[in-house]
Amino acid sequence: MKESRELIKPPAPMRVLTPMEVMPPAPLPSYGYGGEVGIDEELGVRNYWRAVRKRLWLIVALMLLVTALTAVYMARKPDTYEAGARVQVDAERNPALNPSRSDVLTFNDPTYFSTQLQILTSQGLLRRVVKTLDLEHNQAFLHPRPQRTVWQNVLDMVGLAGQKKADPAKAPQAAAPLNLSIAPAAEEDLIETTRLAPYVEALQRGLTVEPVKDTRLKVTETRLIDIRYVHPDPQLAAKVVNAIADTFLLTNLEQKTATNTTTGDFLQKRIAELQAQIRTDEERLVNYARNNQILSLDASQNTVVERLVGLNRQLLEAENDRKSAEAAYRAALTPGAAEARAADSDKQIGELETKLTELRQKRAQLLVEATEEWPEVKEVTQQIAVLERQAQDEHDRAVANIKTNAETHYREALAREQALRAAFDQQRGETLSQNQAAINYRIIQQEIETSKNLLDGLLQRSKENEALLAGTSNNIHIIDHAIIPRIPIGPRRVLTVGLALLLSLGGGIGLALLLERLDTTMRTPDDVERLMRLPALVSIPAARALGPRRRLLFRRALLAAGGDTNSNRKGKARAELLIDTGMRTPTAEAYRHLRTSVLLSTPGGALRTLLITSGLPGEGKTTTAANLAFSMAQTGVNVLLIDGDLRHPQLHTLFQLDNRRGLSTVLSSGASAPEVLGLVKRHQPSGLHVFTSGPPTASAAELLGSAQMRQLLAFLQTIFTYIIIDSPPVASFTDGVVLSSMADGVLFVVRYGKTSRAVSRRSRQVLHEAGARVIGVVLNNVNPRASDDHYYDQYYAAAEKRFETQDVTM
Predict the structure, then answer these.
(1) SS3 assignment, position 583
(2) Residue whose C-alpha is closest to residue 697's, from 626, 631, 646
């Protein structure tokens, strides 16, 4: 944008700005919004209705969702049938009280009947029922098939299904047999109990055991108990009830005869053990006699001793032979003994010695006439050497043969002695064993006789115990067995769906009130006026509230006005100048409405200096200040927009201006009137004048609160009709509070759904204590479609309709 230094001319020559005294603003007038809102007023009946009406669609959606889910769940849930049986529990009989009578009743114990009720629902009895019906493998129990389809259940809920009747009795397999074969009461272990626990829990969920009461007499108690079980399969329901009744009956009888039964079991077990022991002992006796070769225990027919005597004689002879061979072997090992025996016994050695003597003599004769080198002498010498070697080899062989023969003879004698000694020792052990075996044999015979006598006594006791068991009576009887039910008893689908409807309605209302309670932000003009006690001048709709077609028209208008709609930083800033489009959009209409409210906010004339502030950053005060200044400039008056945010300025970005010099440089270094006016830039499309902030500074509060700032504002008021100041948020910095005391009025901006009530109240209190004149509040970035302001909804809808009818071209 081209800067213009000639647009603003002072009416008279100006001197350099000097500090001046400025009168403080007039006291804050009362508009009837003062005071604090209490918690009772904030949560009154009308506010409850507001919270419910604001989130009506949430309540309706929750109610419809819960009701629909409940209806689907109840339609998919199968029908349940109830089968029932009745048992009678009489008082126990104790013949021991009167031995002459077997039907004498015991004293009525009040805990006995309650104990039987607990037994009927005990896990031990139900585990026995599970094993009796084999429920862990029963598909009708694990995965029951519904008797009616989901569509039939839906028709039933709306009253179009007709009479609900199931006729399982027509099926051949539908009979529920009575007098089931009850599983024996075997001793259970932890593994089996854990495995059957899920099926026992399933039985307990559907089982109901209640005593029967009769209201026709004064004494309502009876000894009858109703057993009812609910299950989707009617046939299985009847089977389970009958199995529980029969098991209960049998369990009680087993408890009454537990002592006799235990005695009988012990007797039978002991009898079987004795019989097996007798058979085992007889077999052991036969095997013992066979293994120990006991033919007869008569001493005259014993051959073991005779064999022992023969072995003893042979062992003595073998010992003598071994000693002779050992002596010869040791003699042969004496030095020189074997060589002497070899020379005397070997004829070949003698012959070799004779030949050797002859050759030696012949050599001696030859040496008389010849020398050692004579060929004949050499030949005789060689013959002598050969014969000597042969004689020596033959001698060594003969010595070795003599030693080997002596050793072999000795070892044969020793082995024979050892074999006979082992046979003798074995025979001696057999002789001793035979004597011991005879003793053990007689002991086994005595054990067999004792066991037979004990078996005869146990058989007699067993017969007597069986006679006692046969005479034991049961005090529990089955009055009515269960039959297969034909009409289901549940579920109550219509009632459940109705309750779900009512509960979801109450839950939705409670959720709406809870969300309202948790929501501490400003959302409606009523919130602003009720909580801040300040007038809500206008509600600015959010740009995102425009529909797709409206956003397209808005972008076309921006392009036609020279704006940029790209996603870069400048494009975003340009899109905030909604008045720049020249279109009568709902947002532009809202800013024009704000302009009118500001101009008419005070009697006797409009405000000259207006400060735009907010409680926290990001609430839209800069956008509000820019668009309000645009709207006021369109009336043809001189409007100056000052960026008073010296910490985080935004106006130079919004207008794409140079910010190297501005308000901060004027306040920090001083400037003449022409220099000040030279820093003011003009926005050509709207005729708005902008005074940027200049470089950010850390001493913003000191500069803005200085007398130089007051003098500057007084000077600018002589040039411009209206001055609008964009200031920092008052809850974060004191800059806005300082500027609020210099302005004629303050416009406070809150953001829809973001600004909290606590921050708004605190900001209002800070401004009030600083003597600021807050003329009203702007509710910014409102989503009209989510707002609960009925009047604003109608206004926004009409404005949207007018906006759609505009003919915007590129």
Answers:
(1) coil
(2) 646
Distances (CA, A) of 639 to 17, 401, 709, 722: 21, 150, 18, 5
Residue 423 pLDDT greater than 90, yes or no: no
The radius of gyration of the chain's CA atoms, rounded to the nearest angstrom, is 63
Sorted by sequence, the CB contacts under 8 Å of residue 242 that are 6+ apart come out as 85, 176, 177, 178, 180, 481, 482
Contact of 235 with 166, CB cutoff 8 Å = no
pLDDT classification of 360: cutoffs 50, 70, 90: confident
- Residues for the chain: how many in total? 810
The whole-number pLDDT of residue 3 equals 37
Contact 712, 720 (CB under 8 A): no
The one-letter code for the residue type at 679 is: L
Strands 81-89 and 221-231: antiparallel
Those residues whose C-beta lies under 8 Å from the C-beta of residue 228, and which sit 6 or more positions away, are 82, 83, 84, 207, 208, 209, 210, 241
Q: What is the pLDDT of residues 732-745, one digit of tens each?
A: 788 888 888 888 89
In order of 159, 162, 267, 442, 502, the CA distances from 493 in angstroms are 11, 15, 60, 86, 14
Counting beta carbons within 10 angstroms of the beta carbon of residue 161, is it exposed (0 to 12), middle (13 to 18) or buried (19 or more)? Answer: middle
Q: Are 91 and 105 in contact (CB under 8 A)?
A: yes
Helices 493-518, 45-54: inter-axial angle, 10-degree rounding: 110
At 9 the pLDDT is 36
d(CA 428, CA 435) in angstroms, rounded, equals: 11
Separation of alpha carbons 49 and 253, rounded Å: 69
Give the Cβ contact number of residue 458 at 10 Å.
19
Cβ partners under 8 Å of residue 787, min gap 6 = 523, 524, 539, 752, 793
What would the mean pLDDT of 198-215 be, rounded to a whole number?
A: 91
How far apart (Å, rounded) are the C-alpha atoms in residues 391 and 375?
Answer: 24
Q: Are 200 and 184 in contact (CB under 8 A)?
A: no
Among 810, 794, 332, which residue's Cα sits nearest to residue 554? 810
Collapsing DSSP to helix, strand or coil, 709 comes out as helix
CA–CA dist 629, 725 (Å, integer): 10
Residue 322 banded pLDDT, cuts 50, 70, 90: confident
**Lowest model confidence (mean pLDDT) among 32-36, 231-235, 299-303, 718-722:** 32-36
Q: From residue 559, how far is each of 555, 575, 631 by CA, in Å?
A: 6, 10, 20
- The residue among 584, 535, 523 whose CA lies nearest residue 792 is 523
Q: DSSP readout, 610-664?
A: EEEEESSTTSSHHHHHHHHHHHHHTTTS-EEEEE--SSS--HHHHHT---SSSHH
Closest residue by Cα to residue 742 from 770, 720, 775: 770
Task: Give the 3-state secondary structure of residue 130.
Answer: helix
Which letter, b or e, does each residue of 760-797 get, where b requires 16 or more Cβ atoms within 10 Å of its Cβ? bbebbebbeebebbbbbbbbbbbebeebbbeebeebbe
Rounded CA-CA distance 197/184 in Å is: 18
210, β-bridge pairs: 226
Other Cβ atoms less than 10 A from the Cβ of 146: the count is 14
Q: How far is the C-alpha of 105 from the C-alpha of 100, rounded, in Å?
A: 13
What distance in Å separates the CA atoms of residue 575 and residue 585, rounded to the nearest whole number? 13
CA-to-CA dists, residue 399 to 332, 351, 723, angstroms: 9, 17, 150
Separation of alpha carbons 293 and 309, rounded Å: 19
First to last CA, the chain: 22
Q: What DSSP line would sit under 513-532, residue for residue?
A: HHHHHH--B--SHHHHHHHH
